[in-house]
């Protein structure tokens, strides 16, 4: 006689047979999708790098900016705030940048100055869209590529005659206005990881070097008619940067047991070299003086040392050559310069991130 199971056990087995597939399907839906996680990690990386490689703001104290015909200044500054939108759930990053340049001149008795004037500051509001291709970055966590499209306005808020009787541009209160768009590509590579730090990090962080390069083409449009022929409307902009990041951790000597936090990254040093070349085929005004090669090139080398007591502020030293002064109506001036001061930017710091930097 074949043994039979009690009805209660048969009912229990049938119930299990019916519920197990549903439970398995639910477990699959709960399990993370690695492709989605990878995409979100790339989205977050795009936002971080777009901020990390963005131009730094700077401020130079009195008599610390030399070289220009009107220098040394009482104060010179280039303020470049980044109102950034992006993160894990957005495949792009968007920066709104109300940029502002100002130089406080010493009083010019010939011009009747008596109040340390800010001569024709530069207003440069704009926006930049950063985007990337996940396929290009797949499987290469240390070698990252992305691109950007920018649109900016540049004017000095003046309404005086643009030209002086001698044909030169009116630097005192001449109207200066232009707009430009730029397309740029970025390449970045993290390398030279410290093999064995002085301490062990539970989150596997290590100090490393970050190299980045940027190449862009800038096209001006809707430019003041008096600038055409003397102010470059097409420019090639190139930049390379070297950033050294160190691994740190908090150590509180509390007895009997010291308190040790997890490791984090902080930027130590940064070098950035920049070159901009006017690519117009011909600039006929001023007897072709602006056509000369040395008037078409701007070049700068900048060093920034992040202050140990701040995540966003660094000591900054820079020097270079302006074939075309970028300070609006002063574009006809050409000179070598040097500058000291403080820089502000989004330096490497994992304390700002939900997860450590790779």
Strand order of the largest sheet: 1-3-5-6-7-8-9-10-13-14-15-16
- CATH fold-level topology: Outer membrane phospholipase (ompla), Chain C
H and E string: HHEEEEEEHEEEEEEEHEEE
- Report the radius of gyration as a whole number of Å: 28 Å
Low-confidence stretches: 352-358
Strand content: 35-45%
Signal peptide: 1-24
GO molecular function: phospholipase activity
GO cellular component, one term: membrane
Keywords: Signal
Please supply descriptive tags for the structure shown above.
358 residues, mainly beta, twelve-stranded antiparallel beta barrel, 4 helices, 16 strands, 14% helix, globular, phospholipase activity, signal, PLipase_A1_sf
Give an overview in words.
By secondary structure, the protein is mainly beta. The chain has a single domain, classed as Phospholipase A1 (Outer membrane phospholipase (ompla), Chain C). It is built from 4 helices and 16 strands. The strands form 2 sheets. A 12-stranded antiparallel beta barrel has the order 1-3-5-6-7-8-9-10-13-14-15-16. A two-stranded antiparallel sheet has the order 11-12. A hairpin with a 6-residue loop joins β4 and β5. One of its GO terms (cellular component) is membrane. InterPro entries: PLipase_A1_sf.
Please outline what is shown here.
Helix content is 14%, strand content 40%.
Task: Draw up the topology in text.
Elements: H1 7-30, H2 34-52, E1 57-60, E2 65-66, E3 75-79, E4 83-85, E5 92-104, E6 122-131, H3 134-137, E7 143-155, E8 177-191, E9 208-221, E10 234-248, E11 251-252, E12 259-260, E13 264-278, H4 293-296, E14 297-306, E15 313-322, E16 335-344
Antiparallel strand pairs: 1-3, 1-16, 2-16, 3-5, 4-5, 5-6, 6-7, 7-8, 8-9, 9-10, 10-13, 11-12, 13-14, 14-15, 15-16
GO biological process, one term: lipid metabolic process
Keywords: Signal
InterPro entries: PLipase_A1_sf
